[in-house]
Every structure is written in C-alpha cells, then in structure tokens.
Design goal:
Strand order of the largest sheet: 10-11-15-14
Distance between the termini: 70 Å
Largest sheet: 4 strands, mixed
Structural class: alpha+beta
CATH class of one domain: Mainly Alpha
Strand content: 15-25%
CATH architecture of one domain: Orthogonal Bundle
Shape: flat
Helix content: 25-40%
CATH topology of one domain: Helix Hairpins
Length: about 375
C-alpha cells in the first residue's frame, strides 16, 4: 500500500468507526465486517470481495499503533491543505501533493524534479522539523548469535562446563575493521565532508539524508582490504568454554552477554544465545525441579513393607516402602531432585511398580495358594450392581 493511498482513503469510514475509536472497537468492527464479507460466504460476489480487501487494508493500518499515528498525522495535514499549498523553491517551480507522487501514471519512488528525493524523505522532514530520514551512521550493536549445545541428562541437572565451537562474523585482523588495504587509511567522504549526512532543500521543504556515497559512515575506502574486501569483517571459527548452570532444562536458552558478533563503528557486541538440548536418560525423568524414577518391588514387599535401594544422582540410597503399598504409589524423597537457584533442590519422586512373576516354582505356587485361603477376599459385588 502506497502513501498516496493513505491520503485518498478514509480507513475509519471503511470500518464504520469514529476517528477516536479504541483498539477494541476497531477490532470488533473489523471482525464483524470480515465475517460478513469473507469470500467463502460470498462466492462470485466481486463487490463483496473488493470491500473485504478494503476492510483488511484499513484494519492493517489502524490496528498498528505506530502506523495509525502516522496515518492520522498525514491525513490531518492533507485535510488542512498543508500539502496542497503552492510553494516556490529556488528554481521557481510550483508543486503540490500530486507532484510528490507523480502525475497521471501513479509513479512511485524518487522524483527527479526533487533531486531524486522520495516522498518518504520529504514527508519525514515535515514531522522531524527538517531533519528528514537521513542521519549520520551511528555506532551499531552487533548481531546476536544463536547456537545449540548437547548435554547429558546428569550434566544438565548438576551443571557442567563444555566447549562450544562457533563460526561467526568477526573483525578482520588484516585491516582491524576499517576495510582499508594495509598501509592505507579510509579518508573523509568528499561529498558530505565526513559528516555522513547531506542537507537538501526542495521547494518549501528542507531535509537531511544519509550520504549515498559513503552510506552514512562519513569515510570512503579507496583501496579495499584484500582479506575482507572492504567490509571490515570476516567469518571466523572460535571455541568457547561454556559454563552450564545446574538445573538447565531441555530447550532452555542461556544468554552470554557480549559474546555475539562485534558491533560496527564502535558499537557494542551482540549476545550469544545457547539453546540446551538435553539427551534423555535411561533411568531418570524430570518434572520441573523434581526427578522421577520407577522402582520395581515384589508382591511380598508391597504387602509387608520393605526398605529398597533407590538410585539418585548422588548414588544409591534406601527408601522405605510402607506395608500395603499398591502399584503406582508415589513416594517422595525430599531434596534429591534438581538444584534450584535459591540453593535448595527439588524432590525425587519414586513410583512403586509391583512386579508379577511370570513363572513360579511348585513350592511358591503352593505357598501362594495357602495365602489366598488365609487372606480376606476381595469384594467385587459392587461391580454387579447395575
């Protein structure tokens, strides 16, 4: 959608809302009209399809706080005649808003009658007091870097240090980042005198823009560095020793401030974000800060109670299984889970699983039959009440 559309279209009228409508009112109006005009509900209805497009276009602008503010400012100037006043520049030429966009053919982009300035340059100068969209290139922060690191389950829970090899952009060692061939130096841009900005006057408008010769940097390189071809940066391989804190979970991101790509023109470096990929463990599971483990017990141990040896990350320990413990019962061992930031730890959750023997000796079978005769019967009569 072009800026000219913003001048010619009343998006508030398209949605049927007031100019001071709230975001909620705009959304409600859009949803109602979208349901009513959707092509699926109006097959073959060209008029409904065009209205649906117009409604979508209006909502796209008015639902975005920044775009809505720009639209309101632009429309208010247009309606007040700020653009349509005839103005005379140094060359004596008249122009109005149609001159900015080009006449007849709907031409977009730079207009040579205004020195190649685009409408966005001129429009930007109105709202910035003549400063325009151009500005000298400021220090730029380096890009953030994403990486993955694979961890064993125990290392993720207890913490570890691990090497990580990365290939990222770094400062060229040959030219030290200025892009110039060794023995030469960048020189001040003659077009902007090293400021990175050029000032332009077009009729009633005065605005600034980044120098196109030096891209707003303020310097130009005559002889480019053969290593980086004038960019000042090269791809480098580096190996870091990463400290993994205890308790890292699968998919968690770890931020290392300042370990990303270097900044430009003295800007701060970016950050390194490492995503932990935790390998599953054959014995332990994890539920938040708690560890989980399943321990098999015999029928006799579950009925009579017993002390069984249970694995922990610190080694084996004895856990009491109370008499009459059914299969699936959860036993909690305090403080044997995942370390927390406050210095405490989660718990170890032990699931009891009664193992049913597949084969019995004759003696064991007789003993079990004797037990069945002595044990109280299991009541099932409630299952037959239907």
């Amino acid at each position: 959608m072009s800026s000219k559309d913003w001048l010619e279209k009343d998006f508030y009228a398209v949605l049927g809302v007031a100019k001071d409508a709230t975001s909620s009112e705009i959304k409600k109006a859009y949803r109602r009209l979208a349901r009513e005009l959707h092509p699926d509900h109006n097959p073959g209805n060209t008029a409904a399809e065009e209205r649906f497009k117009a409604v979508s276009e209006a909502y796209d602008v008015l639902s975005d706080e920044n775009r809505r503010r720009e639209y309101d400012e632009m429309r208010s100037l247009f309606e007040a005649g700020a653009f349509r006043r005839s103005a005379r520049g140094a060359g004596g030429q008249h122009f109005d808003v149609n001159d900015l966009f080009g006449q007849g053919g709907g031409r977009q982009g730079p207009d040579q009658r205004f020195g190649g300035a685009s409408f966005s340059d001129l429009f930007g100068s109105i709202f910035s007091g003549g400063a325009g969209t151009g500005a000298p290139a400021r220090p730029a922060r380096g890009r953030d870097v994403e990486a993955e690191i694979f961890l064993d389950f125990a290392d993720a829970v207890q913490g570890t240090t691990q090497p990580l090899t990365l290939r990222t952009l770094g400062v060229c060692d040959t030219c030290h980042g200025d892009g110039a061939k060794p023995g030469t130096r960048p020189r001040a841009c003659p077009h902007c005198q090293g400021t990175g900005v050029v000032n332009r006057n077009q009729g009633a408008f005065g605005f600034s823009e980044a120098c196109r010769d030096c891209q707003g940097v303020g310097t130009v390189v005559d002889q480019k560095c053969p290593e980086c071809h004038g960019t000042g940066g090269v791809t480098k391989t580096r190996t870091l020793t990463v400290r993994i804190p205890a308790g890292v979970s699968d998919g968690q991101r770890i931020r290392l401030a300042g370990r990303g790509e270097p900044g430009e023109r003295g800007g701060a470096p970016g950050d390194l974000y490492i995503r932990a990929i935790v390998r599953p463990d054959a014995m332990f599971g994890r539920n938040g800060d708690d560890l989980t483990v399943t321990v098999p017990v015999t029928f006799a141990e579950s009925v009579l109670g017993a002390e069984v040896r249970v694995p922990t990350l610190d080694g084996m320990m004895k856990v009491k299984v109370p008499a009459g413990t059914p299969s699936g019962r959860l036993l909690r061992v305090r403080g044997k889970g995942v370390p927390k930031r406050d210095g405490h730890s989660g718990d170890l959750l032990v699931t009891v699983e009664i193992v049913v023997p597949q084969q019995l000796s004759e003696e064991a079978r007789e003993a079990l039959a004797r037990f069945t005769e002595l044990a109280p019967p299991v009541r099932r009569d409630h299952l037959e009440r239907r």
